[in-house]
Design goal:
By secondary structure, this protein is of the alpha/beta class. It has 2 domains: about 200 residues, Rossmann fold (3-Layer(aba) Sandwich), CATH 3.40.50.720; about 80 residues, UDP-galactose 4-epimerase, domain 1, CATH 3.90.25.10. About 40% of the residues lie in helices and about 15% in strands. It has 10 helices and 13 strands. The strands form 4 sheets. Strands 3-2-1-4-5-6-11 form a 7-stranded parallel β-sheet, with helices on both faces. Strands 7-10 form a two-stranded parallel ribbon. It has a two-stranded parallel sheet with strand order 8-13. Helix 1 links the parallel strand 1 and strand 2.
Length: about 325
């Protein structure tokens, strides 16, 4: 039985990935600072630990064949783009990656998957909301719009350097806005789909929701199941990457909100307010993944958003039903 390690196993993508790997017959160890928030981990072994500690990183990779490195200091626009967390984001995530890749090399790990991000793409290629350029080769000359993106780009190069110098088999994917049930939905670190679903679920019919910016900024969003399919296909391929794993179904944030309203059966107004936005437009370019893996995500956004809305709405209702003073979960 192959032994896999999922770093960041207490997070949204990581907890789903653990379940996927278990379903495929892997023995799985999960490591994170926290347990999964919304369900118990499916991992055979779950270690609560800080991967910025090299001793913890060494313990995590011990006896492991495949490492899935998803652990990072991250969040939505309200966390990444304010500038208030830049030092922590860069220090914590870079330290984790430095520890994990070196410990993995010393422990004889066979393969490593690294989850990079579409945030590495240059801001100058994403100023047109209708025609962003996120082809993999467009990453250089580098000019990410956040320190989060700069750290991801550094760590891509770190893993590729270990592949060249030490023969480590490395696979790198640039995720584009992964969403779905059991993702963070409140508290400041949530991504746009969960935040909008929460606002729509909380609003009364005929009311309004707030949105940062004019809502004309564009993005694509990928449902968690297709993200995991892409990760596993990449890991089992001979292609190192980096490669985009994302949807090509671009939508404005206004359009995303209107979609959530249709799903909810509510008519609401949108009140646009100042706030952190990131780039003006971003969309996955899937030409390379089709060429290298013979596959690309194809699930319609509305299908995934419907499942996500149902789940978020249930969380909102549960929170409202909690006794006064109880912690939200």
């Amino acid at each position: 039985m192959k032994r896999a390690l999922v770093n960041g196993a207490g997070g949204f993508i990581g907890s789903h990935l653990v379940r996927r790997l278990k379903h495929e017959g892997f023995w799985v160890r999960g490591v994170d600072l926290k347990d999964p928030e919304f369900s118990s981990s499916a991992a055979d072994e779950f270690i609560l630990g800080d991967l910025t500690d090299p001793v913890m990183a060494a313990a995590a990779v011990d006896g492991i064949d495949d490492v899935y490195q998803l652990a990072a200091d991250m969040g939505g626009a309200g966390y990444i783009f304010t500038g208030e967390h830049d030092a922590a984001v860069m220090h914590n995530s870079a330290t984790i990656n430095l520890n994990v890749v070196d410990a993995g090399r010393k422990a004889g790990v066979k393969r490593v998957f690294y989850s990079s991000s579409a945030c590495i793409y240059p801001e100058y290629n994403q100023k047109d909301a209708d025609k962003p350029n996120c082809a993999e080769e467009s990453a250089y000359p580098a000019a990410p719009d956040s320190e989060y993106g700069w750290e991801k780009l550094f760590s891509e190069r770190l893993y590729m350097a270990y592949a060249r110098n030490y023969g480590l088999e490395v696979h790198i994917a640039r995720f584009h806005n992964i969403f779905g049930p059991e993702g963070t939905w409140h508290g400041g670190r949530e991504k746009a789909p969960a935040a909008i679903c929460r606002k729509v679920a909380e609003a009364a019919e005929g009311g309004e929701i707030e949105m940062w910016g004019d809502g004309l900024q564009t993005r694509s969003f990928l449902y968690i199941d297709e993200c995991l399919e892409g990760v596993r296909r990449l890991m089992e391929s001979e292609f190192q990457g980096p490669v985009n794993i994302g949807s090509e179904e671009m939508v404005s944030i206004n359009g995303l909100a209107e979609m959530a309203m249709r799903i909810a059966g509510k008519r609401l107004r949108i009140r646009h307010i100042p706030g952190p936005l990131g780039v003006r437009g971003r969309n996955s370019d899937n030409r390379l993944i089709r060429a290298k893996l013979g596959w690309a995500p194809s699930r319609p956004l509305e299908e995934g958003l419907r499942s996500t809305y149902v789940w978020v709405e249930a969380q909102v209702r549960a929170a409202v039903a909690e006794p006064a003073g109880a912690a939200r979960g």
